[in-house]
Each structure stands twice: as C-alpha cells, then as structure tokens.
Automatic annotation (TrEMBL):
<keyword id="KW-0804">Transcription</keyword>
<dbReference type="InterPro" id="IPR005471">
    <property type="entry name" value="Tscrpt_reg_IclR_N"/>
</dbReference>
<dbReference type="InterPro" id="IPR050707">
    <property type="entry name" value="HTH_MetabolicPath_Reg"/>
</dbReference>
<dbReference type="Pfam" id="PF01614">
    <property type="entry name" value="IclR_C"/>
</dbReference>
<dbReference type="InterPro" id="IPR014757">
    <property type="entry name" value="Tscrpt_reg_IclR_C"/>
</dbReference>
<dbReference type="GO" id="GO:0003700">
    <property type="term" value="F:DNA-binding transcription factor activity"/>
</dbReference>
<dbReference type="InterPro" id="IPR036390">
    <property type="entry name" value="WH_DNA-bd_sf"/>
</dbReference>
<dbReference type="GO" id="GO:0003677">
    <property type="term" value="F:DNA binding"/>
</dbReference>
<dbReference type="GO" id="GO:0045892">
    <property type="term" value="P:negative regulation of DNA-templated transcription"/>
</dbReference>
<keyword id="KW-0238">DNA-binding</keyword>
<dbReference type="InterPro" id="IPR036388">
    <property type="entry name" value="WH-like_DNA-bd_sf"/>
</dbReference>
<keyword id="KW-0805">Transcription regulation</keyword>
<dbReference type="Pfam" id="PF09339">
    <property type="entry name" value="HTH_IclR"/>
</dbReference>
<feature type="domain" description="IclR-ED">
    <location>
        <begin position="78"/>
        <end position="262"/>
    </location>
</feature>
<feature type="domain" description="HTH iclR-type">
    <location>
        <begin position="15"/>
        <end position="77"/>
    </location>
</feature>
<dbReference type="InterPro" id="IPR029016">
    <property type="entry name" value="GAF-like_dom_sf"/>
</dbReference>
<protein>
    <submittedName>
        <fullName>IclR family transcriptional regulator</fullName>
    </submittedName>
</protein>
C-alpha cells in the first residue's frame, strides 16, 4: 500500500457534519415559501434533535432564518451575500435570461433554466408565459432527480453511459415517490427518443395534464450541465406544436452553449 493510498483511506475529520449541513441547506432551499421542520427531518434521514440543532446553528450564523408564525425555515441573509458574490463567477443566469424571455414571448408557455448538481437538477430561473392557464410543477430552488422532468431527462441523455448506469440505480424510496413511469426501463426509452430529436418530452409523468419539454446546454468540455425547459397544459403540446417547441428550445440552448464557451464558464 502506498503512502497516497493510506492518506486517502483516512476519514476527513468533520466530513459527516459538512455533508449533513449541505443536505440541510439543500432541503431548506427547495421551497421558496419555506420548509417545515417535519419535512426536513423526513427527507434528511436524520433525527429530529439533530436536525433542529443544525438548523439553529445555521440560523445563528445568518445562513438560515426561522419564521415563528408559519414554523418554516428559509435561507438567511448570508446565503444572499454568498450567492451574489458567486454569481460573478457563474454568469449562466445573465446569459440564459434573454433566451427564457424569447421562449415565453414566442410560445406563451413558462420557461425555465435548470442546472445539474450531482444526481439532481435544480431550477434556477423561471419566466412566466402569457397563456392564462399555467403549470406550477417547477419553481426556483426545486430539486428533482435526473431522469425526472424534462430538464433532467435532457441532461441525462447526453451523459456517458457508465454514469447513466449509476444514476439509474433506484432504491425503494425512489420507486415509491416517482412510480413505474420513472423506472430505469421507462427512462431509457425516453433517453433513446431524446437522442433522435435532440429534445426531451415529459408527457404529464409528474403531474397529470402538465407537460414539459427540455433541451440540454453544454459546457466547454461538451458535458451537459444545464437545461432549458418549457411547461404547460397537455392541449398546448400537440404533436405538430411539440416539434416547433423542440426546435425553439434547441436553438436557444445552442445559443447559450456558444456563449458559455466564449465566456469560459
């Protein structure tokens, strides 16, 4: 055994705490209206006292706020400060917003920008369309597994096969939450179609009657790191219109990809 191997095998002091804190922050941020303690406990897999202790510590540091009336947890002022500073290094929102506006103006549907974070996508931006009936499945901060919803499918389709294989390993909780419509077999069938058309289609798999479509955005190394998507009600996604929406998504995704490559993000 080499010295490097021995060094790598030693657990990092405090790594478990950091992992838990990161998970708590993710869970709090997925709902702009605030997240109740019971939901954080349920989805973190930690005990209630542990979660409460971590939340209180993060609040003391200004990273979280607690609403004593609604009994919900929210991001605090320090998160805002850090996000503002980090935004200068990652101009994706600045580059993507014009595309979202064009998509909403040309289609009337709501448009979104999502980013890949590990095995999930996180919705970063939303622009409302002009069509009066809307789908509210997505919102800023919402996290969804890759392979669920149009943005995650669009990204997953262009990842290396070994990585796809790892991401499609599902546990009992995943199957219970998302159902057979998101089985590995069903997801793979969807990925094959995406590679033909270039864009993804989610035919009401998360919420009946709410459809979505997406197209991947690629970084300088050619890896899919973000996705544009459109959502709306089922009757707005007829076969002929889906082809038109797909082409618009691909054009805007390509435009952002080229801008990102020039900006060296």
């Amino acid at each position: 055994m080499t010295g490097i191997t021995r060094h790598q095998s030693v657990p990092v002091q405090g790594a478990q705490v950091v992992t838990r804190i990161a998970r708590i922050l993710q869970l709090v941020g997925r709902n702009p209206a605030g997240t109740p303690l019971a939901e954080i406990v349920r989805d973190s897999g930690l005990t209630r006292p542990t979660v409460h202790r971590l939340l209180s510590s993060l609040a003391a540091a200004g990273l979280l706020d607690h609403d004593p009336v609604r009994h919900t947890w929210h991001y605090g002022p320090e998160i805002f400060v850090m996000g503002t500073v980090a935004a200068h290094r990652y101009p994706i929102e600045e580059l993507a917003r014009p595309s979202l506006l064009r998509l909403t103006e040309e289609t009337g549907e709501s448009a979104f920008l999502s980013i890949r974070r590990g095995a999930e996508t996180v919705c970063l931006l939303r622009e409302e369309g002009s069509f009066p009936i809307r789908s509210f499945v997505l919102h800023e901060g919402l996290r969804l597994p890759l392979g669920v919803a149009s943005a995650g499918l669009a990204i997953l389709a262009y990842l290396p096969e070994p990585e796809i294989e790892q991401l499609l390993v599902q546990d009992a909780a995943f199957v219970e939450r998302w159902g057979e419509n998101h089985s590995p077999q069903a997801i793979r069938a969807n990925l094959e179609q995406i590679r033909i058309t270039g864009y993804s289609v989610n035919p009401g798999l998360i919420l009946e009657g709410s459809w979505g479509m997406g197209a991947a955005i690629f970084d300088r190394s050619g890896q899919p790191g973000w996705a544009l998507s459109l959502t709306g009600i089922e009757r707005r996604f007829t076969p002929d219109r889906r082809e038109m929406l797909g082409q618009l998504l691909l054009e805007e995704a390509s435009r952002i990809t080229q801008s990102l490559q020039r900006a060296r993000v």
